[in-house]
Structure formats: structure tokens, C-alpha cells
């Protein structure tokens, strides 16, 4: 009974937050889709799903996510081999740099690609501006890091003896990879592919900025139906379809991640140097560097361009509201708002994530307790199954009346961002806490230490680096979050991604130059945070 009460006490606050700020908005969204004028009307949802435009939107979402996943695997798997199984100067720096795109703000990446492939850009002659190819390239830009980290971590841990035995028996390197290495890597590759498909299918800022009027995904269609057409029922219907599809994909992903692989055994041998036989990895890594470097270089160069020359005028203009009063507040004020919001979202997600990680990783002494902890673990992963756009839409239609009237609260945006970051925080902390030997806690308790003292002396020393890393992830995710914030941010307190999107939508060279400069500032801040996290050397996106 004491353990049950302790479990309930630890889970009470996270469950209350999840109930008010996740379950209630999702139920409100479902209600908006199925109830018309106070009566149950599923035909309204079927009518929305029968629209030809909805068919095109769903098809493009599936197609672009599939193409982005395939290309991410094609580049990421050989790059993972080079970066995790071969030794060369600058390997750690290159691995850290290639992690940064995953957490860059989506609107910044969209602006960077537009600057690269637009009519006046270095690659404008290719005619890719506003094309599906540009959107897929943006998706690969983000998600190839997921494949490199997830597959690379598994590859780094493979027992080398089966491959060495096959090679000793005369098998060629290609035959060894196909018959020995690939089967051992298959669970990691399938898990990475599922996660990448999830991220591609829920991409928002990239499709919104690169798709123009021609291409729209389910995410951007929900946004347009809500903000431009005011068709809340159609937006709710699409949100329901997306919720079911993504949750199903998450179930598949969790099962793939849970597949035991007895062939994994951490290798302590020093990796060999790069050789000519590693040309697939060299080629793939080179293409990834080009894919990441060209848009970033074009963005930085564009931010410095002033008329026919170069200078810092676009950066100096960040303390203004742009030409023709494009903004209500200066860009610098929006940056301060973003930083404050990110700080609030970080401490919220860390507080909740730490409690959840403690609850789900403690040893269970009965089947009922084990099932309860497993259920709680699944519940707190649910925010990963709802896109940020859908979550923001749910906030918009449910948290605007007593007793949960938060429409005018400045905490609404950081709460939404904290929920977006919560699964990442839990997946960073839970493996570390789960790896702590429970006998150490028992020894501390036998010496008279209470639960809090045992946590401080046993668990905290093992998890302080992952805790800092989780804070960095949460801060970076919050800083660039655009989906939920686009629904919830107040006009007089916009975040920096919102301001960037407004600036690129207003005509004028000054506004566009300010958008580029603001994008560089936001990208630089996010990259700095992630490079600091990488120095902590803890698992990141691959843990999903």
C-alpha cells in the first residue's frame, strides 16, 4: 500500500497536467469534429474526408514522408558507418555538427532553402522554388541526423566477431554486410525509419514556407482551415485522422524499439582508419554535409547582403518593426520573448519529465505495479502522437472558457511547448535512471537514508549530465517551436519564429533582410545549445 501511494503521489502532478493540457484539448478537438449543433454527427467527418482536396493533401503527406524517409536512410546508413565505425580527424566535431539540423527551427530551414533555390539564389537556375523536391530536401535536411544517430549507435555496439568470421571464410565486404551486418542492424534501421516517417509526416514549418499555394500537408491544411477559412470542423476532422495514424505508427515504433537483439555487445576495440573501401560512407557523408551546408551558407550570405553590397544593416534593423510597420514589436523583443518562453518551457518539461522518469523506471514488485508503470509510460508518450499543430488547435478551442480559461495567460505557450518537449526529456532521462542498480538505493535505505536522500546520493550523480542534456534539448525545441505557437502566441508577445514568418510574408527588401538576419540569430542560438549538449555525450534522438 505504501508503494502504491508513493507511486500515485509521484504521478499525480504529471497526470493532472496531462489531463488538463493534453487530454482535454484532444477531446475538445474530437468533439468539434463529431458534434454539430450539440448532436453526434459522424457524417460531417466523412464529408470532410471525401473532399478531393483532402485526398490530395493526404496523398502528398504520405508521398513526401515516404520520399523523405527513403532518402534519409539512403544517406544516413552509410554515413552512420563512417561516423561511428571509422576513425578520422574531426570525427566528433562532424558528428556534433550533423546533429544540429534536427533541432533547427523549421521556419528557419524553410527560409534558408528559399534563399538557396529562389530565383535570385545560387541554385535558382534549377527551378526548384515551390516544388515538391524542395520540400523533400528540407525533410531530409532535418531527419538524416536521426538515422545517423540511431543506426550509428547500434552499429557502434555490434559484436564484430560474426562479420570477422564471415570475412575469414572468404566472403566479400558486400556479402558480409548483406548476410551478417544488415540482419543485426535491421531493428535499429526499422525503428529509425518509423521515427523519421513520423517526423516527416508532421513537418509544419518546412511545408508551409516551401510549399507555397501548390503543396499542402495535413499539418499545414489544419493551420489554413483554422486561420484562413475558419472551418474548425474540417480542421478537427483532419486532426482526428492524423491522431489515429500517428498513434498507430508510434505503437509500431515502440514495438520495434523493444525487440531484443542478442548480437549487440559494446565493442571496446579502437575503430580502424578510413580506407578506400569506405567510399559509400564518404560519398554519403559528403552529400549530407553539402545538403546541410549549402542552405545555411546561403542564409548567412543573404542576411549580410544589403543592396549590391554586404554589411550589417539587416542585423541593425532588428530593433525596429520593419518597413511599413510589418510587426507590432521589434525583432529583438520577440527574441527576448522566445528566450523567456524557452526557459519556462524547459523547467516545466524537466520537472514533469523527471517525475515521469522516476515513476516508470523504479523496480516493480508485482505484476499489477509493473502494468501500472507501463501504462503510465505509454500515457506520457501520447504527446508524441499528436502533432504540435493539432495540440495548438486543441488549446485554441478548449482552454478558452471557465474553469480552464487560459486564453489570455502568457503561460499557455510555454505549457504547449513543454508538452511537445516532454517525450524527448523522458526518453533522455529514463534509460539512465533505469540503468541504476536498485541495490544501491536499497543500501542507502538500509543506512537510514529516506527516498529523497537516496535519490540525491544514488540517482543524481548518475544523471546530472543527461539532465543537463535534456534541458538543452527542451530549450532548443522550445526556441524553434512553430506549430502550436502559431495558434497560441499573442500578437503583442510573438516568438521569434512567428516574427520570421510574418516578415517573409510582408513585401519589401528590408523586411526580407530582417527575416534572414533573425533566422541566423535563431539558428545560431539553437546550434550553440545543441553543440553544448553534444559535449555531454548522452543518447539523444536515437533513443526514440
TrEMBL record:
Pfam families for this protein: BPD_transp_1
Regions crossing the membrane: 57-81, 93-113, 133-152, 188-213, 233-258, 279-301, 345-362, 374-397, 409-430, 467-489, 509-533
ABC transmembrane type-1 domain: residues covered: 58-251, 335-533
Compartments, record wording: Cell inner membrane; Cell membrane
Top-rank lineage group of the source organism: Bacteria
Keywords: Cell inner membrane, Cell membrane, Membrane, Transmembrane, Transmembrane helix, Transport
Record has Transmembrane helix as a keyword: yes
Membrane topology of the entry: Multi-pass membrane protein
Similarity field: Belongs to the binding-protein-dependent transport system permease family.
Protein name, UniProt field: Iron ABC transporter permease
Organism, as annotated: Nocardioides aquiterrae
Amino acid at each position: 500500500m505504501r508503494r502504491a501511494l508513493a507511486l500515485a503521489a509521484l504521478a499525480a502532478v504529471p497526470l493532472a497536467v496531462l489531463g488538463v493540457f493534453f487530454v482535454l484539448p484532444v477531446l475538445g478537438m474530437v468533439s468539434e469534429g463529431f458534434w454539430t449543433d450539440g448532436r453526434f454527427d459522424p457524417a460531417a467527418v466523412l464529408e470532410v474526408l471525401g473532399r478531393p482536396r483532402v485526398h490530395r493533401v493526404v496523398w502528398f503527406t504520405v508521398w513526401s514522408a515516404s520520399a523523405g524517409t527513403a532518402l534519409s536512410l539512403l544517406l544516413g546508413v552509410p554515413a552512420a558507418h563512417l561516423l561511428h565505425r571509422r576513425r578520422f580527424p574531426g570525427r566528433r566535431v562532424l558528428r556534433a555538427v550533423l546533429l544540429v539540423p534536427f533541432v533547427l527551427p523549421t521556419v528557419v530551414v524553410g527560409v534558408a532553402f528559399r534563399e538557396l533555390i529562389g530565383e535570385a539564389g545560387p541554385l535558382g537556375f534549377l527551378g526548384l522554388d515551390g516544388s515538391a523536391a524542395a520540400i523533400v530536401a528540407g525533410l531530409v535536411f532535418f531527419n538524416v541526423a536521426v538515422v545517423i544517430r540511431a543506426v550509428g549507435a547500434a552499429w557502434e555496439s555490434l559484436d564484430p566477431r560474426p562479420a570477422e568470421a564471415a570475412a575469414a571464410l572468404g566472403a566479400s565486404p558486400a556479402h558480409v554486410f548483406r548476410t551478417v551486418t544488415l540482419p543485426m542492424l535491421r531493428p535499429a534501421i526499422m525503428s529509425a525509419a518509423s521515427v523519421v516517417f513520423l517526423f516527416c509526416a508532421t513537418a509544419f514549418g518546412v511545408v508551409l514556407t516551401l510549399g507555397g499555394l501548390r503543396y499542402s500537408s495535413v499539418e499545414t491544411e489544419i493551420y489554413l482551415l483554422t486561420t484562413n477559412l475558419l472551418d474548425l470542423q474540417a480542421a478537427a476532422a483532419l486532426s482526428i485522422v492524423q491522431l489515429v495514424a500517428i498513434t498507430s505508427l508510434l505503437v509500431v515504433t515502440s514495438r520495434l524499439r523493444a525487440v531484443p537483439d542478442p548480437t549487440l555487445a559494446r565493442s571496446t576495440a579502437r575503430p580502424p582508419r578510413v580506407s578506400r573501401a569506405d567510399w559509400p560512407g564518404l560519398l554519403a557523408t559528403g552529400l549530407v554535409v553539402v545538403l546541410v551546408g549549402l542552405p545555411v551558407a546561403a542564409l548567412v550570405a543573404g542576411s549580410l547582403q544589403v543592396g549590391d553590397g554586404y554589411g550589417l544593416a539587416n542585423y541593425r534593423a532588428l530593433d525596429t518593426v520593419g518597413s511599413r510597420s510589418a510587426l507590432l514589436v521589434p525583432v529583438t523583443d520577440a527574441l527576448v520573448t522566445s528566450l523567456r518562453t524557452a526557459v519556462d518551457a524547459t523547467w516545466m518539461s524537466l520537472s514533469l519529465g523527471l517525475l515521469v522518469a522516476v515513476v516508470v523506471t523504479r523496480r516493480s514488485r508485482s505484476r499489477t505495479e509493473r502494468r501500472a508503470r507501463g501504462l503510465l509510460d505509454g500515457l506520457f508518450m501520447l504527446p508524441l502522437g499528436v502533432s504540435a499543430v493539432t495540440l495548438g488547435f486543441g488549446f485554441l478551442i478548449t482552454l478558452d472558457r471557465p474553469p480552464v480559461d487560459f486564453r489570455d495567460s502568457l503561460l499557455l505557450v510555454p505549457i504547449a511547448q513543454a508538452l511537445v518537449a516532454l517525450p524527448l526529456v523522458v526518453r533522455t532521462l529514463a534509460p539512465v535512471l533505469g540503468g541504476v542498480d536498485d541495490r544501491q538505493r536499497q543500501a542507502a535505505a538500509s543506512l537510514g537514508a529516506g527516498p529523497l536522500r537516496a535519490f540525491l546520493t544514488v540517482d543524481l550523480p548518475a544523471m546530472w549530465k543527461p539532465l543537463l542534456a535534456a534541458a538543452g534539448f527542451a530549450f532548443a525545441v522550445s526556441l524553434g517551436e512553430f506549430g502550436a505557437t502559431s495558434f497560441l502566441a499573442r500578437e503583442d508577445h510573438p516568438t521569434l519564429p512567428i516574427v520570421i514568418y510574418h516578415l517573409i510574408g510582408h513585401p519589401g527588401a528590408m523586411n526580407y533582410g530582417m527575416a534572414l538576419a533573425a533566422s541566423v540569430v535563431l539558428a545560431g542560438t539553437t546550434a550553440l545549445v545543441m553543440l553544448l549538449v553534444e559535449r555531454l555525450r548522452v543518447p539523444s534522438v536515437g533513443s526514440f
